[in-house]
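G., the chain you wanted modeled:
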Amino acid sequence: MQARSAETTDTNNKQQETMRLPSRRRGMRRLALVVPMLLVQPAQAVPAGAGEPALPRVVEREGRHALLVDGAPFLVLGGQAHNSSNYPAALPKVWAALEDAHANTLAIPVAWEQLEPSEGRFDFSYVDTLVAQAREHGKRLVLLWFGTWKNTGPAYTPEWVKFDNGRFPRMRDKDGQASYCLSPFGEATLAADKAAFVALMRHIRKIDAGKRTVIMVQVENEVGTYGLVRDYGARAEAAFRQRVPAAVLARQPAPAGHPAQGSWGEVYGGYAEQYFHSWAIASYIEEIAKAGRAEYDLPMFVNNALREPGQPGQAATAWRGDFASGGPTWDVIGIYKAAAPHIDFAAPDIYMPESGKVSAVLAGFQRPDNALMVAEMGNAAGYARYVYQIVGKGALGVVPFGIDYASYSNYPLGSRYTDRRMVEPFAQVYATFAPMSRLWARWAFEGRTHGVAEGDDRMPQTVAMDGWKATVSFREFQFGERRYLRDKSEYAEGTELPGGGVAIAQIGPGEFVLVGQRARVKLAPSADAPAMYARVEEGRFDAAGKWVMERNWNGDQTDYGLNLPAAPTVLKVRMRTYEH
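Predicted structure as tokens:
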């Protein structure tokens, strides 16, 4: 975590004590004592002093992470607006879609060009309107700073930056030709970007310190460079010949067969240019984040335009022009941690719809030293199932992109639709999680949650839990086994494409909360012991976190597992074993 003032540290220490929940190692017996309290108690704010709510922050315990908002874990059920929806006149179409989606958080750009149209003259009118309207609609905000880089390019910089290549230099290739991308070694560029960002953070503190509407800030957007592995300008060349900083070596050791210390080329060989570019951009971002947090200490993160995900035990390949070199890809998170300590985490943007790739991306970014949050995701219907997997893995949140009703579709990366047909698949899932989102965030921080999404292969999946396991299958009818069918190729209506998912929270010994749709779940002890359902209640959690039962499942509803229908459903399940 970043350095804090004595006053902030004291406040944070008090919050740490408040949030000190029993660890998994203390066992489910103690969890059983805690969970009933969680089910009836709403999340309470922890005072920061003088009636002011606690600053949002990202915390870590035993390799798990939580985003604290008003002193308690918060689950971001978000939507990101289109890049050009960051103007007051466009906001009504944003709020309408967010309301329909049952989202609790809006991620939306603040562009350098709109904040500082002429050097030194700042216009905060859009920010003021945005924050005021977010409060009116009961939404939290994640601000996306589109500064030096947005999708690697300078499109959102002011014109006085964009076209002054003498003062604000672009990267150079080996032949000295200018790239489209601004150089991370541009001293004037860094100074100007930092000044604008500091002004933004100062203004947010002024208008929002007592409300905490803004809960996080993304610094830059999808940084890196396409088509050029690094900057070959004079300042970059001089830096490339220097020794690799010790902090980087501690996080990103030399590949086998290379010296443990030396220049970038000596230590990293074929990876050197990508790693160097990652360090240069991360160091640039660090200067901006550090200065911004000195003004207003909100959590900050970076997002990543993905490269192909790695597989377990598979080393990353060297850059071959196939992704944005220098960005916080899964293979250089260590470099970003070393170079940018004021950035809390690196987050993936997922626009690869294949289930195997999604799982690999999540595994690559969820690390003991890096909180998982999906900063962007496709808004096509097929992505909705991944919310169960992402939330079940204990992520801070998930933010599909393009959740507004502007007449613009980013198909094929997302949905073809720009109306409620686009929002509806996510709305069903969000509406189910929304009343219990604070509870779920606490359970996730405790390490009690699990999640699966239906794979492209449609095959069953097994989830290992504390003393129990869950087998999740898909394309099932709600009654009977497939072997009973006369036509084995017959499937339930609406399952032509993968769309099932389940998130499971183990809230006590043999006690579970299941949230899901289009899936069959069978629970069994990990050991070879007979068990049966003691109670299976369908219902919901109300706004105070209290369980409200609708009915108890039994007989036909449980004889063949727990068959979650097409509409997202919440079950509270208690299992018991018995003697042979």
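DSSP finds 16 helices and 23 strands in the chain.

Shout if anything looks off.
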